[in-house]
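Help! Submission page says 'invalid entity' but I think these are all valid:
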Amino acid sequence: MKMKSIVFGMVLLATTGTTWSADSEEIIKYRNSVMKAYAGHTGAASRIVRGKVDYTDQLSLHATAMRDISMLTGDLFPADSDFGETRAKDEVWSKRDEFNEAVKENQQAAEAFLKVVNSGDASTQAESFKALTDSCKGCHDKFRSEEE
Amino acid sequence: MLRLAAYAALLVSLQAMAAGNILEQGRQVFLAANCQTCHTDSDNNGKPLSGGRELHSEFGTYYSPNITPDKKTGIGNWSDEDFVRALRDGISPDGRYYYPSFPFTSYTKMRVDDMLALKAYLFSQPAVKLQNREHELPFYMRIVPSAKFWNKRYFEPGEFQGDPQQSAEWNHGAYLVLAMGHCIECHTPRKALGVMIEDKLFAGVQDLNGAAIPNITPHKKTGIGRWSVDDIVYYFQSGISLSGDAAGGKMAGIIDDSLSKLPLSDQRAMAVYLKSLKPVDNQIRKNKKKRKKEEWE
């Protein structure tokens, strides 16, 4: 909840005018960190799902975090945060509907995976996780530049 | 174990021959050689294999040609000899030399039966009428026969030669990586005139557009030394790296069109081969391009 208010505050700041560009830069830095955290949970969950480590009781934590972060991502790309050190492509803003749709698909996939994890049914876990990571890849393919 | 693997491989190829299923063999070659990604202009909803996809390089902008069996604009009139000559020698049916933007430098290592199976498969695909687009080359390359010069000077045609000291899986992986997947083409830095730097094969490069193409030699610090064979296979299947990042851009296309569609045995063989490469210490710098805010206002 606290996280959401912070994000909301930052988005508000970013959208109130160009004089807030310093805050836009902060949003970009924050966004980079949040996406890295998303990747961190994805990498950790993948090692549990693949049976590489035995921390099955921690999968729910990662699945919950992934779902929660997926709910934030759409808000992390406000207008005026399309400069500086970001790999976000122009299409994030120029094809906003398509971007929002990709974010929504990711949220649904993350929600579905969390449900599967919480159900304790291991048989569909790998498949559901694959659907989630495919939606990450699909969005990166369209909306993230290869330039560093 | 080794003999068992070799026996299994032999059995599989005998079965394939018995079935006479050249189209299935061709489909496997098509997937492993990944013709799809470059020969389809997917960014502009181009029809499969009809070409037109841009490839930017410091030697100009190249447009992939139409490789559908359309007789006028595609390769529908090509004979078997034409097709083999293109892949093995880098020369088109009308005698023109290809620029190495077309990776004949890798495909030359392909066995002729695989080339012909690939041709049969391509000819079974829908024909699309779409004229090829001319490459946009710098002036100095247009006034001299630069492609012919390059081919004669730097290119050595020849089929893949296995290493009997290595396992059947390793040899299969080497064939897939070197003759088919042509990973080396993007993952190797080049010197003047686009010639690969011999001691940095597969060691990664930062391309013209600033994209960091990773070092895929098993160097512990700068390459994929910490990745297990399973981790590499998982990456081929999902695009999820060791750090949990999901692939995007060109590599996402290569995973979707090629790597994820290969049989597990192929994915494993490729991973085993990559893990056996000589580790090269080559940190790919992330040259962060800063986009100026003023451009957006």
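Support: the input was valid. A stray whitespace character was the problem, and the output above is from the cleaned input. Confidence is low (pLDDT under 50) at residues 11-20 of chain A.
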